[in-house]
Structures are given as C-alpha cells and as structure tokens.
Amino acid sequence: MSATKATSKSKSTPSIEDPQTPLREQLVALLKGGQAHATLDEAIKDFPAKLRGTVPANLPYSAWQLLEHLRIGQRDILDFSAPPTGGYHPIPWPDGYWPKSPEPPSAHAWDATIATIHKDQKLFEDLITKPAADLYKPFRWGDGQNLLREALLVADHNAYHIGELVLLRRLLGCWHK
What we know:
Blueprint: H1 3-12, H2 21-32, H3 40-44, H4 63-81, H5 109-129, H6 147-172
Helix pairs in contact: 2-5, 2-6, 4-5, 4-6
C-alpha cells in the first residue's frame, strides 16, 4: 500500500469515542447540582456562624451536623468506589456518619469541611470521567455495586441533605431567598 493510500485511509477512519461520555457528562452535572434544587454553595452561602450549631425544635441535628454528614457520606462512597491502599474499610452505621456535637469543633471547621466536600466531589468527578472507568462493571468488592450506582447514590444523598440544610435555614430564619 502506498503512503498516500495509508494516509487517506487513516483520515477517513472515525475516531473511537467513549460511548459512556454523554452519561459521564450527565452524572457530573447531577453531582454539581442546581438543576432541580439548590446547590451546596447556595445552601450554605452566608450561613451565620452563631447558628451553625443550633438544633431547631423537633429536628435531630444542626447545620454543622448535616454538613459534616455530607462530607463523611460522600468520602465513604468515594473510598468504596476507589478504595485507598489497604482496601475499603466501612464506617459503623449510623454513629460513624454523624458528628456527636451539634457545634463545629473550631472556628475554621465549617470552612474546612466545605473545602473537603468540594475536593472529594472533584475526585469523584475525575473518577467518573476517566474513560478507562467502566460505569457499569461491578466492583470486585461489595455486592454488585458499580460506579454508576455509586455516582447516583452520591448525587441523591447530597441533594437530600442539601434540601434539609435549606429547610433548617428556613426554620432558623436565615434563608436568604
């Protein structure tokens, strides 16, 4: 075959696109939120520091506890989906997922937790968008879970508790909308 024919043949060969790309893009958009509900950043924007540890009447937790629960749950799902060296180690349910104290342990804990939530969400997005990651293939560990299921779980869990943060803010009289 001549060089001309080889070149023209390779130009006419379509590039192989990851067939899961559209789904990956939708999952990332779902994780970022804001399509049908408030985003985390909207739910926590200008949250008064003096109210972060307040437990409203008839609710079991404060905004701090909800925020920290979001961090812990998302990290646990990330660790399950891409186990660190040494493998996945489950957190005791329910005690390991909720902080005991309604108050943040320090003045900077609130901001540190938010930064960690954002960092871990980005790590999860990177995991989802990696073309080598098969969204449908069951993990070698667990009970048949796969990356798609875990991405949907993170999005669902976060949306639920972000909604609770908005409701909690309304009850405390500090919702800005």
